[in-house]
Write a structure and sequence with these properties.
By secondary structure, the protein is an alpha/beta fold. It has 9 helices and 14 strands. It has 2 domains: 237 residues, Type I PLP-dependent aspartate aminotransferase-like (Major domain) (Aspartate Aminotransferase, domain 2); 118 residues, Aspartate Aminotransferase, domain 1. β2, α3 and β3 form a beta-alpha-beta unit. The longest helix has 22 residues.
Length: 396
């Protein structure tokens, strides 16, 4: 029998019988890994200084496990930074840029943040900005390998990712600085094309917020050793010790006091990942999750992907726009109101939480398909989305 669209009925709209076992589909902070409990925190070095031997050992273990799980080249270094991914990215931007021209590519909320940092805050003299509308990506071929590049791997709010790393020359002279907060542990990374990469614990690994990770390749370390910007750098972004790279950052030292409870929680996530098969297993879970949700999207009569180009469509943070005439032709305010009604209905039923699009994006629905989510829960979510849309449409 041929597939029929999941067109929600306007009347006699029964609730689906099967609910997701876990209704948490937020794109950040994201769901904890399967099997998580508060017991994961029992060995946390609570009420200890982060400079104590046992605490430093925990932080160092987190850095080492990150290095191993991501399969980093031996000469790449990992540091724990304050301020989540934003803090890690801004530390790199403020400490490394200005030595040569810079190209910034933005097509997402945070990609736009890096444009503001480089253009309006640092006021880089030799700056080129490449922007794209929501659901699209700039022409990456415009990147000049003699320059530094700042870009986002996976635009969490836009649902758009880079297609590959082929646009980055292997013999580049500039540094590549990549915001990979919703890509690390989920998508393939060509480390030969990356000099700096950042992410946060609260995304793919389901850790707690406010801690960022900074990965530095040897070319980035050399930039720190040979160049220091002439603008003031706040202490929480400071990667220099005098005029050289502060190498203690990659040995368990931190710029401010981290939460050792959160460190323990991140360690639990890293151990879970290793137990289920490491990076290949995490990436396969993402592919399975996206396939499960995609099966519903392909049949839907009222939503479609915000990103129309499949080659750059994110399989991790999936963004959907309204396609049914009654909503596709509605005003932006009416579309946001529809999203609010759908979200409220799903939360009331405990069938799907935090599925609204990012407030700085366009109205619609956003669903996390990262490795801590289970594909069965995504399969169960689709019928509930259909039900909530029909209910919200009737109520509207």
């Amino acid at each position: 029998m041929a597939d029929t669209p999941n067109a929600p009925a306007k009347t006699n709209n029964p609730k689906p019988m099967l609910k997701p076992a876990d209704p948490r589909f937020s794109c950040g902070p994201v769901k904890k890994h399967p099997g998580w409990s508060f017991d994961a925190l029992r060995d946390a070095q609570l009420s200890r200084t982060h400079r104590a031997g046992a605490a430093v050992a925990k932080i160092t273990e987190a850095l080492d496990r990150t290095h191993a799980l991501l399969g980093l080249p031996e000469d790449y270094r990992v540091a724990l930074m304050p301020g989540s991914d934003t803090g890690a990215m801004e530390a790199a931007i403020w400490s490394l840029l200005g030595a040569r021209g810079t190209d910034v590519f933005g097509w997402d909320v945070f990609g736009s943040r890096w444009i503001v940092d480089t253009r309006d805050e640092l006021k880089l003299k030799d700056l080129r900005v490449f922007k794209a509308a929501a659901g699209e990506i700039p022409d990456l071929s415009q990147y000049d390998g003699t320059r530094d590049a700042v870009f986002t791997y996976n635009g969490t709010a836009a649902g758009v990712r880079i297609p590959d790393f082929d646009w980055i020359p292997a013999d580049r002279e500039g540094l590549t600085i990549c915001d990979a907060t919703s890509a690390a542990f989920a998508l393939e990374i060509d480390w030969s094309k990356i000099d700096v990469l950042t992410f946060s614990w609260q995304k793919c690994m389901g850790g707690e917020a406010q801690h960022g990770m900074l990965i530095m390749g040897p070319r980035a370390i050399e930039r720190l050793n040979s160049y220091k910007p002439d603008w003031p750098i706040p202490n929480v972004l400071q990667m220099h010790a005098g005029d050289k790279a502060d190498m203690k950052l990659y040995e368990g030292s931190t710029l401010n006091t981290p939460s050792l409870m959160c460190v323990e929680d991140y360690l639990a996530a890293l151990k879970w990942a290793s137990k289920i098969g490491g990076l290949p297993a995490l990436q396969q879970r993402c592919r399975d999750n996206f396939a499960s949700l995609d099966a519903w999207v392909q049949k839907s009569a009222w939503v479609e992907y915000l990103c129309e180009d499949e080659s750059v469509r994110s399989p991790v943070s999936v963004t959907l726009k309204y396609s049914a005439p009654e909503m596709a032709n509605a005003s932006t305010e009416e579309q946001w109101a529809m999203t609010a009604r759908i979200s409220a209905l799903l939360e009331q039923e405990n069938a799907g939480l935090d599925i609204s699009m990012h407030r700085a994006s366009v109205p619609g629905i956003r669903i996390w398909c990262g490795p801590t989510v289970d594909s069965d829960d995504l399969a169960a979510l689709g019928p509930w989305l259909d039900w909530a849309y029909a209910e919200a449409l009737d109520a509207g």
